[in-house]
Give the backbone structure.
Amino acid sequence: QKEVEQDPGPLSVPEGAIVSLNCTYSNSAFQYFMWYRQYSRKGPELLMYTYSSGNKEDGRFTAQVDKSSKYISLFIRDSQPSDSATYLCARSGKGKLTFGQGTILTVHP
Amino acid sequence: ETGVTQSPTHLIKTRGQQVTLRCSSQSGHNTVSWYQQALGQGPQFIFQYYREEENGRGNFPPRFSGLQFPNYSSELNVNALELDDSALYLCASSLNVRSLAPQAPLHFGNGTRLTVT
């Protein structure tokens, strides 16, 4: 079992839709969780960072962590074509991040 | 504030050759990590350098080695290149307060695309 499993997608949604991206993790020893966005030919860009169960909101983005079920989600409201990218979830460990495989999202006008 | 910069952006090498990739960390960051990202996959941790010492290593063979310099810039060296080494190599920096702390958010460069033929 991989340490972090991510729904691979790809996802294709119309502009304005609510997008849900999901990951599960297997090791509950560490508490930091992150979401990165990666555009084509670019490095990952940090979107959200949280260290506790519950929701964290930043504009159109909401990160949700459920430690009891080891589930991580990212919600994007009012999705835009500029949100089209690969989304990576990551779990923090000692000295490293463990990433999911990424979900490719396309938002079409 | 300057971000993480990597060079070169693209590189083509032949199997068996050696390669050196370079990274300048974000201003104020003392820790550099290297990740390998194969096509269609998430980044995989290679190793981290904290205060010029290797501070953790992923499941990569010894032919992957690195250095961190006093200005916190870093190099990744790969010897005896194999076809499977073809990937995007990402450098990331962070500010860590101690060795092997739970990893703070990483700030990535745009990577070096290595192709081994």
About this structure: Chain B has a mean pLDDT of 91. Chain B touches chain A through 28 residues (CB under 8 Å). The first strand of chain B starts at residue 5 and ends at 7. Residues 88 and 113 of chain B are 4 Å apart (CA to CA).
